Fold Pyridoxine/pyridoxamine 5'-phosphate oxidase.
Amino acid sequence: MEIDQWRRDYLRGGLRREDLNTDPMEHFTQWLREAVESELPDPSSMCLATADADGQPTQRIVLLKGYDERGFAFYTNLESRKARDIAANPKVSLLFPWQSLERQVIVCGRAEQLSREDALIYFRTRPRDSQLAAWASRQSEALPSRDQLEKQFEAIKSQYGEGEVPLPDFWGGYRVVPETVEFWQGGSRRLHDRFVYRREESGPWAIERLSP
């Protein structure tokens, strides 16, 4: 496997300053819409990077469940590794890897916990099995076997029967409040286009072109 020889050129198009919106969320909306229209699998999936109190980073894929001018929202078990990391170090990064469009969006900022009301509103929209799974899985804890997980799920399913599944007290959401948002568009000859929005203390976002 000559992995060092695997490469391709990026020819889908460039990104110029005149293409950008003044607000990164507006430009993100445009790119997300184009990702959906291109029928990319899981266009709302994003890689969340956290670091623990010792500075050890880790990453995982989570799903974007909402965004606005305040930031990007996702939901998870509040006792998971990612949640423990955020409690120790709220600085996080998100990456949207829209590879077939030769695009990336990279967000750096701080994660803040959403209200329990927000978590409940979203929890009620989840499929019932997903609600039950939130109770059955003690995310990031050691598990002796898949069979044990299935038994936990069936026990929870039996416990709640056909009734309403309550919101677990260990489950909720976070909003990543962006400090920078970078838009990356692949370019030919590895001359990629990169623009980063930086949050100013007052006034509009500052925009800079970065070297590829």
Remarks:
- The chain has a mean pLDDT of 95.
- The radius of gyration is 20 Å.
